[in-house]
Amino acid sequence: MLHTIKQGVRKFSTNVTSLINCNRLEGKVAIVTASTDGIGLSIARRLAQEGAKVMISSRKELNVKNTVEKLQSEGLEVAGTICHVGKTEDRKKLFEKTVADFGGLDILVSNAAVNPSVGTVLDTTEEVWDKIFDINVKSTYLLMKESLPLLKQSKSPSIIIISSIAGYQPFNLLGVYSISKTALLALCKATAEELAPDGIRVNCIAPGLIKTKFSRAMHEMEEAHEVAISQISMRRIGQPDEIGGTAAFLASDDASYVTGEVIVVSGGMKSRL
Ligand code: NAP
């Protein structure tokens, strides 16, 4: 006899920030790209709450200024600079300012990504393909490469790449974006192997559906929202603050034997066998 599966899910608190009481990142310096909003901001805040000095960055000066002021008003040690991750000169200044303000670098979080258009993979224009791969994949690769002289001087260096659950199972109409996120999983595996002799750990976080401007269509349109949460075991969209703790763990010495891995943070959305 078939039994009906109960679909209700208990409501658990997502107020993770109020519980933080550890200083795993004391003495470390972090860069988080695209850290003036959404997941990047959540990661930057959490790393700073755990004791790191954090360099905030994104494309718009006002966003950087407002975010730095906000985090400083929370008692966190942060500074900021403009960095469009696709611009060589901006990336150079990002590293220079981090050294000038904080004296070195221990943690690089490559978080910036774009998805300029929605459509099928084979209808995507070459221009859109190039933009997605330039920002999501090539900029991550260049940031990693350019950070090495600094990370090699760190006692516990670590790189964290923000991929996506779409990297495992391409999202409908976000095919090229999904392909770029799969490429990041491979970038993580390949570079973790190459950088292990230098003691540099490289890991990925693959968020599921998280409530940010980026995913607005999924949580603002009722029909899309219903379809989306039907695929999530916990039957809710995640909050940006539910990603920061995973980044803090991967950046910390608690993860000293973890490299080349991907942590999926998706409320149970399926990602693998
Ligand atoms: P978001 O809320 O839209 O955040 C955008 C942030 O990126 C802002 O700070 C923006 O500031 C900055 N930004 C945009 N383009 C940039 C560029 N070229 N260079 C530097 N900064 C840039 O996005 P999010 O949802 O937090 O996404 C963050 C990461 O998580 C991305 O890698 C995304 O693929 C991944 N992810 C998101 C979800 C989700 O459901 N939200 C799921 C899986 C993975 P400015 O406008 O000032 O530049």
Automatic annotation (TrEMBL):
The keyword Oxidoreductase applies. PROSITE patterns: ADH_SHORT. Keywords: Oxidoreductase. It holds the Pfam family adh_short_C2. The keyword Oxidoreductase applies. SUPFAM superfamilies: NAD(P)-binding Rossmann-fold domains (SSF51735). GO terms for molecular function: carbonyl reductase (NADPH) activity. It comes from the Eukaryota. InterPro entries: NAD(P)-bd_dom_sf, Sc_DH/Rdtase_CS, SDR_fam. Belongs to the short-chain dehydrogenases/reductases (SDR) family. PANTHER family: DEHYDROGENASE/REDUCTASE (SDR FAMILY) MEMBER 4, DEHYDROGENASE_REDUCTASE 4. This is Dehydrogenase/reductase SDR family member 4.
